[in-house]
Amino acid sequence: MILYTARRLAGAAGILLVICALTFAVFYLMPADPAQGACGKACSPERIAQIRATLGLDQPLPTQFAAYVGGIVAGRTYGSLECGFPCLGFSFQTNQPVWDALTSRLPTSVSIAAGAAVLWLLVGCTAGVVAALRRGTVWDRAAMMAALGGVSLPIYLTALLSQYVLVVQLGWLPYPREVALTDDPVGWFQSMLMPWCTLAMLYAGVYARITRSEVLENLGRDYVRTARAKGLPEVTVVRRHALRPALMPVVTIFGMDLGALLGGALITESVYGLPGVGKLAADAINSSDQPVILGVTLFAAAFVVLANVAVDLVYALLDPRVRTA
Amino acid sequence: MSLLETTDLVKRYPVRHRLTRRRIGEVSAVDGVSLGVERGETLGLVGESGCGKSTVGRLLTRLDTPTSGQVRFEGRDLGPLSEDELRPVRRDLQIVFQDPFSSLNPRHTVRQLLSAPFRYQGLEPTEPVEDLLKRVGLKPEHASRYPHEFSGGQAQRIGIARALALRPKVVVCDEPVSALDVSVQAQILNLLRDLQDELGLSYVFIAHDLGAVRQVSTRVAVMYLGVVVETADRDALFGHAAHPYTHALLSAVPVPDPDLERGRERIVLRGDPPSPLNPPSGCRFRTRCPKAAEVCAAERPVLREIAPGHLVACHFPEERTP
Amino acid sequence: MTTVAVPVVAVPVAGPLRRLLRQPSAAVALAVVVLLVLMAVAAPLLVWTSPTDFDSAAVDPALGGLPRGALGGISAEHPLGVEPVSGRDVLARIVHGARVSLLIAVLATAVSVVVGTALGLAAGFFGGVVDAVVGRVMDLLMSFPSLIFMIALISAVPGANRELLLVLVLGGFGWPYVGRIVRGQAMVLARGEFVAAARALGAPRRALLLREVLPNLTAPVLVVATMSIPGYIATEAGLSFLGVGVRPPTPSWGQMIASAVPWYAADPAYFLIPGGFLFATVLAFNVLGDAVRDVLDPRSVRR
Amino acid sequence: MTLLSVRGLTVEFASGVRAVDGLDLDVEAGRVLGVVGESGSGKSVTSLAVLGLLRDARVSGAIEFAGQDLLSLPPRALRALRGDRMAMVFQDPLSCLNPYYPVAFQIAEAYRAHRRASRRAAHALAVRMLERVGIPEAERRARSYPHEFSGGMRQRVMIAMALCLEPDLLVADEPTTALDVTVQAQVLDLLRDLRERSGTAIMLITHDMGVVAGLADDVVVMHGGRRVEAGPVREVFHSPATAYTRGLLECVPRVDGPLPHRLPTVEVP
Amino acid sequence: QGGSGEAVRGGTLHVLASTDLEHLDPARNYVTSSQNVARLIYRTLTTVAPKPGQAGGEIVPDLATDTGKPSDGAKTWTFTLKDGVKFEDGQPITSRDVKYGVERSFAPDLPEGAPYARMWLEGGENYKGPYENPEGLASVQTPDDKTIVFHLNRPVADFGSAASLPLFAPVPREQDTGVGYDGRPVSSGPYKIEKFEPKKRLELVRNVHWDPKTDDVRKGLPDRVVLELNLDPAVVDQRLVAGQGEDAEALAMEPIGAATVGRVVNDPALKNRLVSGESINTRFLTLNTRRAPLDNVKVRQAIAYALDKDALRTVRGGPIAGDLATTLLPPVLAGYAADDQFPSPDGKGDVAKARALLAEAGLAQGFPVTLDAPSTPGGKAQGEAVQAALARVGITVTINAISPSAFYSTIANTAQIHDMAIDGWTPDWAGPSTYLPLIFDSRLITSEGNNNHSQYHSDAVNKRLDEIAALSDPAAAATAYGELSRQIARDVPVVPFLWDKAAILVGPKVAGAYGHIAYVGRVDLATVGLRK
Ligand SMILES: Nc1ncnc2c1ncn2[C@@H]1O[C@H](COP(=O)(O)OP(=O)(O)OP(=O)(O)O)[C@@H](O)[C@H]1O
Ligand SMILES: Nc1ncnc2c1ncn2[C@@H]1O[C@H](COP(=O)(O)OP(=O)(O)OP(=O)(O)O)[C@@H](O)[C@H]1O
Ligand SMILES: [Mg+2]
Ligand SMILES: [Mg+2]
Ligand code: NI
After folding, report:
1. What GO biological process terms does the UniProt entry carry, in alphabetical order (chain A) (predicted)?
2. Which end of chain D is more exposed for a tag (fewer CB within 10 A), N or C?
């Protein structure tokens, strides 16, 4: 198992390396010249050339790429500038190592993702189970229609609408802003509530549908019939024999969704103006801050890839058939 | 020279871990099987689940490539042939599967299914689809239907018609009646018998149902965990089984007669067949054999002829009581 | 002899479309989709106003370009109101925007279905190295933070035809989801007995792939196709929302919503109208996709 | 004494399929009733109806078990009977065991549903039951998961689970069909042995006339949801009253006796 | 206006910014909003007067006792530092610190700053900054701790004005962290940095070593100044409209968006909280004079007639966003002279005249052009307004949206700029000397980093620019620039459309806020405070 984990992690690193290379290549194609960008309003060609040399932009692409990957592993320097391990690049627009920018924004993204995840799991799975148990009833249909509606609502629309209604019209909530949980728990909760609900609305629908179909599928399984034949109370039958196995695919998808979300809820953070990793990415894209885009892409991909590995391992832990195979 | 024969046929499948996809071992599905089928005869192949019967069937029709050993058809080794070179051979060598529905493409009509053999062989159809249907007891107007519109028995008839379209010399029937109801089973067994009489076919009849094997076979081979433990003419095998396993097998089949069934001397074997992942050393049956001795663990018994045409792989075969 | 033929049960197999229409929600969804498609196709005939003409009389510069009149300037001349500042007709932009959205979504679906089916089929059928390579590529694409990367990629080639680029990028990142399903199905089918039967008959590989396996993939492929259209509509709108969609002044729903962001408090109609259209469209396609799956997917039929 | 008495049982599914149509049958205490018939003749549906496990189906007629009318019993009372006084063994032991729990847990669960017992005591009982159905090293194997057992062992686990509360009636739906003949012989032996020791009545559902011949005292032959014939095994087998039963008996190729060139086929009543 | 009541000492002032502070490092700080913030942190030799309107253009002493003494025909400039000026650690500020600060602006590692030191100081072309040439630049002399002398390579009449730029702020050599200095410049002004998270937040607290007696400009009223950066502009507007909680003590960094105008104009209470500041910025449409058919002056004149200035202003918020521009130099800049060479009713354009001019040029059927615009919502909207206006005369405009950070470097690249660009110019201080010479002198055209975006070439204009530069009287020079601008306007290298005004919303507790022309109408942070 340890060996397997190591092998998966190595594979994950491989995937990240390829993603890194591809992203790097795309930036090379980008017309915006970081040196020109860094040079600003009054800039002579000589000065641009100087900056280019400092950034290593005059080197051939493979050399630049090697330097970049080397930086991630061991840190590097840009001219007189130190960029310590793990150096995901250095933003000349914010004068900050990309790593610092990412880590300073991670708490916001984690706050959003974690809270939303709790919410959507609670709402989605409950609705899914209820719908499955009351199959064909009004409850079922209403839950599934609501789920489809939630899935169909573009997130920026939900965000704008909730902000318009809850903040502008009703004034029930303040404008979301960055608040540390440790500084002001109430403010944190108030600020995060809308982003959580917005994200949860999108995902809860998906989870309700998955949970419903999995519970239904498991309810039709022979071992559920066995459980009933044993005379178990229906609650136990559902909980132990239909829900538990149904949660396996939910766990799988949850791991991946969470992994993707930790890499920044791009639109949510942008719409609410919350300085998370996603907003960092959006801003960086708007201002063509290539080192940051590259860094965020890698960072987000790392979460996805690691989530994949984690999901497989968790799966192995949860499913005795895999565990002992 | 047999029409279709195998020598020392071996097939191993790698086994992978469910999660890590690492190779964690090998199933030795078939381990040194030598068989022969003569013109016009039916070789019955019996054994318990997982003993390698289907694998032999797939190897005989070259749907799988043997790990080692030979499959010869009319004296020609099929091993080194490419798919293109095999194509003409396949006209003479057909297969009927267990589950009639999964062996018929659900998206093709009966007409398409029954003209496929000619199309794939690049031949002009020699026999109209309607005639093929009639031969297996179906109506010509069935030609435009899809498989799901048939009952199991009817679908199996279509499978048989398809196998026979090219007028093969040998048909491997891999449990052709196991999925069918008893009453339908009888119809299909009768059909196979009729077709053999009419067309002079040879069959390799794979089944775990000893009664069915007895009904259609002229010779029978008994397999246990990838090896053939006994072969004999039908009557010899059912009358004078020499291998303890064959004995146990025969005695385990319940007979639909309350008096006979209750009074019968039964040999109930202990335990289950071992896993083909790591088969026992020496004689593979020794772990369940009532006669097992030390030599059985040490030495693998080879097939010996104990009477003309009666071969047994056992250190302590039953005495033949005439 | 006394054989009794087992009577063949004549299963009344209603056509898939009929079964689909029997569900009221699916029928409504289909009607909405058909209407939308008609609207998109007949856009120039439907609205005479150009989606790019400014109408400075319809807005009040002293109020920062707020549309004159209630509800975002709804009037006989502008049935759905006008865009703040420019006074462009919202209905005209909605109708022309539908064209862009639908066209891109349908083409992206086509790209992902064709590529996904081809590669998934190859991977599932041949297994081994092909499967390993295709599998890796799919893993890779699915690990990409695709939204970020798509934006970066699209902004990296500013000169290219945006519509085409969007189709390629959406399809390029979307095919693994088709490919994964097709691969799984193809793998099961390739090991199935009817493929073995065809091989035993001497069928060449091409025939196995195209005649035996492929026809059995139509149902799952059709299901993923219908289910992915709404996703592409939403993603295209999302990209336009983030400013990397189709180029102005070509209207697009996502863009309209994006430009409504600063106005959401002052002129809520301006984001509610395109937002409502987007929601209705995506919902209709989702409901339809769901119904198509119910009709075609044997798993859900079984329940 | 009649333990289970079924009268005019009719089961109709929502789809309109009438799977069982006015069936009568009786299981005597301590005796084995064989129920035979072709696929689709309604055997399984009957067994599920008896245990009240059918959902989405209209069940009518009368099912009387130990003097109680099961059809009019409230769900709670029915549940209390189920697993306790009447238990069931199904055909496919792999799919009938939950892959996520160790086998002992699943046996103990059945026990704890009806008797107050500590976890530990229930587990000990489960181990005893496993020993009783002939699982070697029961103490160790108790913590294994279903997939770690072979088919025959799994069916033994199912039987242990059904018998842990010493029910009056065991409904066994094709308990050996998924098994190999040698393993089938073991399981049949086990059932025979258990009946002799505990006196549990068994309703044995099968399509294999040989199995009925070996184990059953009485037999009911079903076709199309109706009873074609019923009576003591010996009577029915030696002198079947209907051509259908005779056909069923004769169309199966046997390992002994004469060999016809062609097999007789069944005539539907 | 600007919040009633008296501003008092104390409290926390919040500044809500929808943009980022580009650079705080004095060697790199070259954006008005950053300069406005930087004035809270560090002092320069001179600075702009803290007054509303045109008076804000006046240069006053800051660290120095006066605005500089020219000698040698304005080729040598001498400044004397005030007594008692200290860094945040209590160390006195010396002339060496100022010299070091100027030298840093030569370092290639610290790009982006104003170019004047590099352009004007003798020997500057070979100097690479203190990191590579630690021996320093000989043309900046510090005879004693208080005196600093600059030797220039040409006469510069308003070097005293240039000395108000951040690169003339003192930097203690021992505390220079190179590139990292951007995140934590050492304070010499009333506030020092407590916490700075780029693109998120800047928190300033009092610098106890700043002595108000040495500073006639800054008031340093609030105890703390907190800037929230990179907010959504609509959210900033909404928060200030609501003006609740902390937001009562907040002011916006940027003008209100068009969507808020209606709300503010119709609400007297809000209108009372609106600070309207004039600006030295002029917005114009740059026409690339090297690309056909825009190389034809008739075509350019046609575009000048066709342009709908009013629509462009509506995009920016309507009349509140400024006045329609008719000249290059805005009215608040010295040298402005009223003029309108391409008049049209309400600034909506004169389509008939434009068509006639196009017909003269043989392009009556129109032609296609590509317009470079920033990919911001505003940029795109302006692009679409140009598109719609020029469509009226048959000119089809394709918008090339460029990411905002790359926008200026792209149009400053002569190979990358297309036919037209949404453009504008803010002089570096409130005088015309950093306007026309920088953007219309054809001899300054470079392939990259070019400021003459229209690539306008006129030998007559070049000659005149040299003559004006040689004038030692700033007032005479201003008048001359004004006259020259009319001459340039006839050639239409650019079409001015808006003289910016900034309408800025402040919270109900903010007092003493006014828009400063040098900070393009933004609230002067150095003097604003909170009410009781
Ligand atoms: N493709 C394969 N990969 C791995 N193992 C295989 C494969 N095919 C067969 N096996 C294994 O080889 C052994 C023999 O299988 P085979 O299908 O030949 O048995 P069988 O006698 O036909 O059984 P049954 O009566 O159940 O059909 C089994 O253990 C099976 O699990
Ligand atoms: N849930 C259900 N809904 C509709 N029809 C059903 C359902 N369950 C069973 N049936 C139908 O009822 C009939 C009897 O089925 P049942 O399972 O009792 O047969 P069986 O005798 O047990 O057959 P087998 O030997 O194949 O197990 C069949 O025609 C079957 O299709
Ligand atoms: Mg088999
Ligand atoms: Mg059954
Ligand atoms: Ni007959």
Report:
1. transmembrane transport
2. N
Question: How buried is residue E88: exposed, middle or buried, by Cβ count under 10 Å (0-12/13-18/19+)?
Answer: buried
CA C240 to chain E, closest CA, distance in angstroms equals 12
Inter-chain residue contact A222 with D90, CB threshold 8 Å: yes
Domain borders along chain B are 240-321
Within 260-279 of A, beta carbons closer than 8 Å to E belong to: 271-273, 275
- E439 and chain A in contact, CB less than 8 A: no
- CB contact at 8 A, A290 and A55: no
Largest CA distance in chain B: 64
- Name the pTM for this structure: 0.83
Report the residue from E318, E385, E400 with minimal CB separation from C158.
Answer: E400
Residue ranges of A 2-41 with Cβ closer than 8 A to chain B:
4, 7
- CB contacts under 8 A, C 4-23 vs D, are 4
| Cα-to-centroid distance, D55 and ligand 2 (Å) | 13
Domain range for C223 is 22-53+85-300
| ipTM for this prediction | 0.82
Check residue D252 and report its DSSP letter: S
Quote the percentage of chain C above a pLDDT of 70: 91
User: Does the residue C283 lie in any domain?
Assistant: yes
pLDDT tens-digit series, residues D52-76: 888 888 999 999 998 889 999 998 8
Residue E505 is predicted with a pLDDT of: 93
Domain boundaries, chain A: 2-98, 103-324
pLDDT at E354: 94
Give the C-alpha separation, B15 to B164, whole Å: 35
Average pLDDT of chain D, as a whole number: 90
Number of separate helices (H) and strands (E) present in chain E: 15, 19
Any residues with CB less than 8 A from the CB of A159 and at least 6 apart, and which?
A194, A195, A198, A267, A268, A271, A272
Beta bridge partners of B277: none
CATH topology of domain A103-324: MetI-like fold (1.10.3720)
| pLDDT interval class at E494 (50, 70, 90) | very high
* CATH code, domain with C182: 1.10.3720.10
CB pair distance less than 8 Å for D147 and A320:
yes
Low-confidence residues in chain B, pLDDT < 50: 322
Cβ-defined contact of D81 to A231 (cutoff 8 Å) = yes
Q: Where are the alpha helices (DSSP H) in E13-127?
A: 32-41, 95-104, 116-120
Decide whether any atom of ligand 2 lies within 6 Å of the D13 Cβ.
yes
Rounded CA separation B127/B108 (Å):
19
> Over the stretch D222-235, which tens digit does the pLDDT of each residue have?
999 999 999 999 99
- Burial status of residue C71 (CB atoms within 10 A of its CB: 0-12, 13-18, 19 or more): middle
Give the count of domains, chain C: 1
Is D212 within 8 Å of B256 (Cβ atoms)?
A: yes
